[in-house]
Amino acid sequence: MNQYQKYKEAAIYSMSGPELLFMLFDEAISRLKKAEYALEDKEYKLFEDCLDRVARILRYLIEILDREQPLSWDLRRIYRYLLMDISKVKAGRDREKEEIARIRHILSELYDGFEKASRSLAGTPASSYGGYR
Question: What is the pTM (predicted TM-score) of this model?
Answer without folding.
Answer: 0.81
